[in-house]
Amino acid sequence: MRLKKRIPVIDQGDKLGFWGGKFGGNFVPETLKKPIEDLELQFNKLKNDKNFIKERDKYFKNWIGTPTRFIKLSNLTKQIGGAQIWSKVVSDANGGAHKIYNATVHCLLARRSGKKVIIGDTGAGYAGKMLSMAAKKFGLKCKIFMGAKDIERQQPNVRAMKKNGADVIPVHTGSKTLVDAVSECMRYWVANCDTTAMCVGSTVGPAIFVRICGWSTSQISRELKVQLIEQFGSVPKKLKLYNCVGGGSSSFGFWNEFMDYNKKQVEFIGVEAGGPAKSKKHAAPLTYGSKIGILHGAAQYVNQNSDGQIEETESISAGLDYPGISPLHCFLKDTKRARYTAASDEEALKAYQIVTKYENLRPSLEPSHAFSVAIKEAKKLSKDTIVVINSCGDAYKDKKILEKKLGKKYVKSN
Amino acid sequence: MLNQISLAFKKSKKEKRPALLTYTVAGDSSKKQSLEILKSISKYADILEVGVPHNTPVADGGQIQTSSYRAIKNGIKMNDIFQMIKEFKKIENSKPIILMGYYNMIYQFGENKFLKECKKSGVNGLIVVDLPWPENKIFSKKCKKSSINFIQLLSPTTSYKRLKNITKDSHDMLYYISMLSTTGGKLKVSPKKILQNYYKIKNINPKKNCVIGFGITEKTISKFKSADGIVVGSQICKEITRSLNNRQNPVINVSKMVNKLKKKIS
Questions:
Q1: Predicted TM-score (pTM) of this structure
Q2: How many domains does one find in chain B?
Q3: Which of A99, A185, A367, B258 could form a disulfide with A127 if both were Cys (CB 3.0 to 4.6 A apart)?
Q4: Which domain holds residue A120?
Q5: Partner A contacted by B189 (CB < 8 A)
Q6: Do A79 and A164 have their domain in common?
């Protein structure tokens, strides 16, 4: 299995949509073959269309607000005493997270194809919130599928979706989290694909959705590359990019532009959700050696039992609480381009406390996982190493959990 | 010699009626009871579809999901399903059985090992919901080698060119999905329109037996008398749920229902 240079990773799949011959694909009911093929044709044409790119960039700039900040965490660097710690503050983007890029692109595609309704899944509520924002902006009706457990724990985002006029449809099946929301969303699309567009909230699902999402979030690394060169004159000789990985959309977007660099120069570190320290359940299929299986239309490493039933996950962060992982990350793992590890619930909470103590930055529970590993490793790294963490979401949505775990006082003071 | 599935169609054609195909989930509501249900409905049904329950089904509606979760919760495993079919076939050797499910269950079991177990236990056909054409080409060839019917699915969104290609690669039986829906949805297309699409497929190759499924119930089944076969699934699963909720015996109730279905098309 080999990663090719000078070809975007999203375009390195084979005819049937498999990366490295075995990850991804289109394991979908016959009914979805046609709408997926239509979307493939549309996207393959538009991704090279100058006018479409212009349109995308216009909305990215004027509406999403690119570029997001690239800042040095000086106090944290001093406190840790090793590598220089920087952050790409993607939570600056309109809506407060990276999910806005994919949502915007899907709405642009839906509008061009004449669809009036767009549906999507959500875990932490960010994908849903952003899709509801973009749908409103582009005059589309919007339905969001969300696990009942996630609705309960991510109320601020649920309120935002409703305020934007979206129908939030609670999913009560299975573990009542993201995995069930994606299933229900796909089922709804099976029944309504003639009138409705579907947006998959991460780099997961049938191959075309993986590609569209990766193409959209790559905005993050395009900006970062420019910012690094502005700051250091060139891409640093020792650069380490830390990102949390649930489905894998923010991390893929954070790394894409640096894919062709030698990994000794630009290393990618993906941090999965290890779940509660005392629990056997986790959402870290790459770290804990899960087997390849089929989930939501794609072959990937996925938590499952020996029979092939998908296993329940557990994580404090709803956005990482997914049993599978993007085929792109399976490919980056097996080609050894990226390194994957996990942080537990407790480690993420601790990292959140450290970051908010020293810096004017409030990463949500998802990037707190990445901060945890970055802080630990930065200690041992030389001063000329540049560590960058993607702070891809804001902790406002986690208020309830943080209050419960850390006490009201702590949250208020930040 | 014709295989059991083709024989079942031949028999129903002789009786000038469509074949009745039932769908129940293996292990619903228990291993023992689902075998009892199969035995009792086999008196009326021509072909038995047995669902392999999966916990992330992307094409099933509420009724079948409920049955599947119930079966998984009660501990059904792939090996139990093969065992159940083996026991059923001891009594009803000539009644064709089709396993219907999602590809991950086959993938984890191992394609070759899965087919070997199918053959050993007496499975006659397979429907794999999320393994469409052309992705299924290699597996469907393997099935053919093991004398197991791989049943291709067709839907209202399937283009004419695709219909032709899929029909060409199909074995003895095709399955037409009546409308854009998960299983068990309300019939939102007129039977006339559904049959029009059905005949489009039949005209490509009249020799292939084509069944119609999704959303067909006691109320609508008689409208499809001219088809080669008709599948009823969700309504049966719903009846199991209803019986359990009312503390009645699902075996008796489901058997009654299938008897009625048969009468409506005879």
A1: 0.97
A2: 1
A3: A99
A4: 29-60+98-214
A5: no
A6: no
